[in-house]
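Re: Re: ligand-bound prediction request (bumping)

Still looking for help on this. To restate: I need the protein modeled with 2-acetamido-2-deoxy-beta-D-glucopyranose bound, output as structure tokens. Inputs repeated here so nobody has to scroll up.
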Amino acid sequence: MKCMSYIQCIFFLILLGIVLSTYFLQSGVLKRKIVPSLTELQPTESCQGAELTKQFETDELDDLLERRTKEFKQHQFRRKTNADIIIAPGNSPLQYPITGFKVAPLKKSIIPGLALQTQGRGKNEVYKVSLSVKKGVLSVEDVLDGDQVEGQSQNELTISSTSRTHLNDLLSRVTYTSTIYHIKTSDLVNFSFEDHEAIFPIMIRRPSVPFLYDPGKDVNSQVTIITKTFLRYKELNILIESIRKFYPQIKIIVADDSLNPERLSGNNIEHYVMPPTQGWFAGRNLALSQVTTKYFLWVDDDFVFLNNTRIESFVEIMEAVPDLDVLGGEVMGDQFYFILEYDEGNESDGGCLRRIKEVHQPLLGYDGCFLVDGVINYFLARTDTVRSVGFDPFLKRVAHTEFFIDALGKLLVASCKGLSIGHQTHRANDKYYTYRNQGKLEEEEKLAHHFFKNYLNYIKY
Ligand SMILES: *[C@@H]1O[C@H](CO)[C@@H](O)[C@H](O)[C@H]1NC(C)=O
Ligand SMILES: *[C@@H]1O[C@H](CO)[C@@H](O)[C@H](O)[C@H]1NC(C)=O
Ligand SMILES: *[C@@H]1O[C@H](CO)[C@@H](O)[C@H](O)[C@H]1NC(C)=O
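Reply:
Sorry for the wait, this slipped through. Here it is.
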């Protein structure tokens, strides 16, 4: 087109741009594609990186989102706790257990601490309190003739007396029995007197049985070394030899999905041969499933024990800080660790997750140790808790952070400087690298997996 002058031409183009984009935005054509509501989708810094919805065609996405939302709601339902916010009223004469009262399902328990703390009043005035619950029944133990108790063994109980002392005596014998069997749920008690009202939770929990490991007398009865191998027998044999130099007795478990498995020789080695190319996490799971000690030490098949590789140093810290589940060391001086920045999703949008090289806090009392969310491939861990998270066998080749994503909020993880192991120098092994290197397709499958499984919309490693 012909413009009168340079300036006019610019004005014209800007005007055209505004008119057109307004039209398209209003008609909805541009909304999703050109401005993919970035502000909506990026509520915080952690919403960056791969946009996982891009893994899917538009027509399959709607269905997928529907299924994902349904599964997410079920997940939330299963995970629910006493998350409701309960506000305690001011100046209430009602005394009650604010939190922490726990009962077994279907079992009768006295509710501790119930009382009315109010000023004395005129003779013959009646004190009257009520209690009500939703998932159980209430009663007063050992009621005598003349006690004014209404609603025994029902979900609403009223107790009256002209004596506050007597009323409090009755309140000290109030019991709760849940009537709907569940292993992990809660009820709310509504406790009221005149216009005062208090609400408090009762946790209903089926007690679980402990699973303890006898630590025995030394590191051999406390720790199992586990690894997964694939087409790397040279490396594996060097690793085993190096372990035996320092730990001649300790049990070693090897999961092996090589194409043509070779025999491993040596005592106290359990060699599990899997179908070929089952993958990295499937192998970790298999090895872990066979551990019978309190802890296991994860090593890669191409590591090598050095003079200063001391499993005992890990055990010492784990024993001193029993809350810890995973303790990472360093490989050839590399103390790799990270934290995960995570924005939970809500019912309409998936969350965002970002890996960053930071620590949460130092681990008090241990120089060079930090609380983190993920560590290097060399760590000591509690067998029972890591088993409850597991290694997702969907992840076949390159996967490491993925385990720590699954463990987020479930395992307490730390990393320590100075707990070292060596790494063997890389050998040429074309066959191995052909399999190991993650194809583009597999990478995309992994992103799609995060989208559904982790209820994420964005991920950044
Ligand atoms: C608690 O119980 C009192 C007395 O029965 C009732 O007036 C009140 O509405 C109840 N409050 C709630 C939150 O259910
Ligand atoms: C490890 O210790 C052995 C025996 O104490 C010694 O011969 C060897 O040189 C040491 N190796 C290193 C790398 O320090
Ligand atoms: C869900 O989260 C997104 C992004 O933070 C927000 O825009 C949206 O309003 C939220 N929806 C609900 C139902 O809370």
